[in-house]
Amino acid sequence: MYTRFLDLDGLLNLRDLGGYPTEDGRTVAWRKLFRSDSMHRLTPAGQAAWDELGIRTVIDLRTPFEVDHRRWTPIDGWAGTWHHLPVLTEIPDWTAVDKEYAEGPDLAADHYLEMLSLGAIPLRDAVTALIEQPALFHCAAGKDRTGVLAALTLRLLGVPAETVVEDYALTESATQAWLELRAAQGKTTFDFYVPPSMRGSAPYTMQRFLTRIDAEHGGVLGVATDLGIPQSTVDELRRSLLI
To answer: What is the rounded CA–CA span in Å between residue 11 and residue 3?
Structure first.
């Protein structure tokens, strides 16, 4: 029996995206597509368990600074490919945002939509790289940048929007586990100001993001066109990931 969350020592938010039904009656294959928090947290035991998954492609969506300071180094002999595709060049300074807007519910979803333009080329290249499977993509917490790529990929596969929202919301339990770990280590919740809507993974955030995609891009295929993802890539992802 496959499970959604994978328990690998060091990681809090490693999830298999398999098992989701699509609108045309097919299913996303298990053990071929994964989303995660940052791979640098893997302990030696976690790395050994990760190796057993047979991952061929790792996509790191973090900023150059994050990669330089918290780099994941695969064990010798790994035959896969690591892609650094930063969706953002730097972590936003949320203190520079209008406080009333920052404290409201819409900032996170609007930020996700902004990633479609700020990170257009990395997102295009990430979707293309997912053709080589099993594939895993991650950012720092596995919530925001990872959530955008997961949403685009699942919707391109034909997974219903409501299921994508449910998948996004699963990160809430991982966030709580991270907060508990921080507290046990005697650390504060966050090292810098994070607006309320960016602290969790409320269903509203992903619902708003997908609704804006439909309204402003004509749906996920419109986003694919805007990002420069050819239909042949979408077709290959569906062929290789759907059963």
So the answer is: 15
* Mean per-residue pLDDT of the chain: 94
Report residue 88: phi and psi, to 5°.
-125, 145
- Name, in order, each residue with C-beta under 8 angstroms of 223's C-beta and a sequence gap of 6 or more: 116, 152, 213, 217
Pairing of strands 57-60, 33-36: unpaired
Residues in Cβ contact with 167 at an 8 Å cutoff, skipping those fewer than 6 apart: 15, 17, 20, 150, 154
Q: Which domains, and CATH codes, for the chain?
A: 15-241 (3.90.190.10)
- Grade residue 83 by pLDDT with cuts at 50, 70 and 90: very high
Judged on CB neighbours under 10 Å (0-12, 13-18, 19+), 239 is exposed
Three-class DSSP category at 16: strand
Nearest to 21 by CA among 123, 134, 166: 166
Roughly how many angstroms between the first and final C-alpha of the chain, as a whole number? Answer: 17
What's residue 188's pLDDT? 65
Q: How far apart are CA 65 and CA 84, in angstroms?
A: 12
Separation between Cα atoms, residue 126 and residue 135, nearest integer Å:
10
